[in-house]
Specification:
The longest helix is centred in the C-terminal third of the chain and has 20 residues, at about 340-355. By secondary structure, the protein is of the alpha/beta class. It has helices at about 10-20, 35-45, 60-65, 85-95, 110-120, 135-145, 180, 185-205, 295-300, 310-325, 340-355; strands spanning about 1-5, 30, 75-80, 100, 125, 150-160, 205-215, 225-235, 240-245, 255-260, 265-270, 270-280, 285-290, 360-365. It is about 35% helix and about 20% strand.
Length: about 375
C-alpha cells in the first residue's frame, strides 16, 4: 500500500501501518506523508522506506507508483478530514482502491461527491470504523441478527473522553477543533460518528430521526465538544447517543447496550474481550473472546486463545484483512464502505444543523 498523511508526529499513521502489516498480507511501500516535502521524506525514513518512494506531492506519488511494475496496489488516506475527498478522488482516478480514515469527508456535500466517484470507479473503497472490527462486536451483531434479543427496543451507545477538557493547543490532533480542517462537527464528527456507526452496525437497524443537543463547553471553542442525541430507528426502537471530550478522567470509554423483547447485551471498548448477554429469566451469560462459543465470523477474526487479550490494533487489522480480500477480488460484506460513510456524514450534518436551530426531532436524510 501507499499512504497519504501519517507523517512525523501523527498518531494514526503508525496505527494504520501496524494494522495493515499485522497479518503479513500487506506491506507499506510508498507514501506522501506530509504536504511539506521535507517532512514527507522524514516520514518515509521513519517508516524505513526506500527514500525514492517518499514523495513530495500526491500527484508525484500517483504518477510514479502507477508507472512502476511493483507499484502500490491501493492507497490509505490518513489525513485530516478536509483532505479526504481530494486524496481519495485522486487515487481512485489513478485506478487505485482506497481505504480511508473516518469520517468519510469534512462535509455531507463532499461525501455525496465522493460516493459518486466511488460508484463510477467500481474500485474497492472502505472506511476504518475500527470498532466494527472487534470480534465480539461482530459476535454481538450476529446474535442480534439471529434473534437472540428478540425485536430490538432500545439502544444506548456512549463514547466519553476527557482529553479536550482544557485547551487543545499543543496537543496531538489539534486540527480536530479547527472547522477549516475538521468540518462542521467537532466531537460529533470525531467520536460521535463512531458511536452512531457502531449502533447501526451492531443492531442492523437504521436511524430515521434524531433530536440533537450539541455544545462547545470550553470557552472560545468553535466546534462542539459535548453531545447528546436521541435516536429513533426504522423498526420503532428508541436510542440515545452520548459523546463527549470534556469528561475529565475518561479515556476511550466507548460502550454499547442493546435491549430487546427477550434479552439484552453489553460491550465496552476498554474491556473488548467480554460480551455480556442478559436473558429475560434473569440469567446473564458472559461470552469471552478466543473461546469455542463464538460464531464463524468472530472466530475467524480472533488470533489468540482465550485469556490472551486482543484489542484496538487487532480490530484495526481485521478491517485491513477484509480490505485485502476486496482488493484481491473477494468479498467483505461487513467492511464499512461508501454507503456507511454517507450515512455517517448525514448523521453529523443533521445533528449539527438541528442542534443549532433547536429543531427538535429531525429526519435523518441522505
Amino acid at each position: 500500500m501507499a499512504m497519504i498523511g501519517g507523517g512525523p508526529g501523527a498518531f494514526i499513521g503508525p496505527v494504520h501501518r501496524i494494522a495493515a502489516e499485522l497479518d503479513r498480507e500487506i506491506e507499506l511501500v510508498a507514501g506522501v506523508f506530509s504536504s511539506d516535502p521535507a517532512r514527507s521524506r522524514a516520514g518515509g525514513e521513519a517508516y524505513g522506506l526506500d527514500p525514492a518512494r517518499a514523495y513530495g506531492s500526491l500527484a508525484e506519488m500517483l504518477a510514479a507508483e502507477t508507472a512502476r511494475p511493483d507499484g502500490a496496489q491501493f492507497v490509505a488516506v490518513v489525513t485530516p478530514n478536509h483532505d479526504h475527498l481530494p486524496s481519495a478522488r485522486a487515487a481512485l482516478a489513478a485506478g487505485l482502491p482506497v481505504i480511508s480514515d473516518k469520517p468519510m469527508t469534512a462535509t455531507l456535500d463532499e461525501a455525496r461527491e465522493l460516493a459518486a466517484v466511488v460508484e463510477a470507479s467500481a474500485l474497492p473503497f472502505a472506511l476504518t470504523y475500527t470498532y466494527s472490527g472487534y470480534p465480539l462486536v461482530r459476535e454481538a451483531r450476529a446474535r442480534i441478527a439471529a434473534g437472540a434479543l428478540g425485536k430490538v427496543r432500545k439502544v444506548v451507545v456512549e463514547y466519553p473522553q476527557g482529553w479536550l477538557a482544557g485547551p487543545a493547543e499543543g496537543k496531538q490532533a489539534e486540527w480536530r477543533v479547527d472547522p477549516a480542517r475538521a468540518g462542521a462537527g467537532g466531537c460529533i464528527g470525531d467520536i460521535g460518528v463512531h458511536a452512531f456507526q457502531l449502533a447501526e452496525f451492531v443492531t442492523g437497524l437504521h436511524v430515521t430521526e434524531l433530536l440533537a443537543d450539541l455544545g462547545a463547553v470550553v470557552p472560545g471553542r468553535q466546534l462542539d465538544d459535548d453531545c447528546s442525541v436521541l435516536l429513533r430507528f426504522n423498526n420503532g426502537a428508541r436510542g440515545v447517543m452520548l459523546a463527549s471530550q470534556i469528561e475529565v478522567g475518561e479515556l476511550n470509554g466507548l460502550r454499547i447496550r442493546v435491549y430487546g423483547e427477550t434479552g439484552g447485551l453489553a460491550w465496552k471498548q476498554e474491556e473488548p474481550n467480554t460480551l455480556t448477554l442478559h436473558h429475560l429469566d434473569g440469567r446473564s451469560e458472559v461470552i469471552r473472546a478466543g473461546t469455542g462459543l463464538l460464531g464463524p465470523d468472530a472466530a475467524r477474526r480472533t488470533r489468540t486463545p482465550g485469556g490472551h487479550p486482543e484489542g484496538y490494533l487487532e480490530a484495526f487489522a481485521n478491517l485491513y484483512r477484509d480490505f485485502a480480500e476486496l482488493v484481491r477480488g473477494g468479498s467483505a460484506p461487513l467492511l464499512p464502505g461508501a454507503a456507511q460513510g454517507l450515512r455517517s456524514m448525514a448523521f453529523i450534518d443533521t445533528a449539527v444543523r438541528a442542534s443549532a436551530a433547536r429543531a427538535g426531532w429531525t429526519p435523518l436524510s441522505i
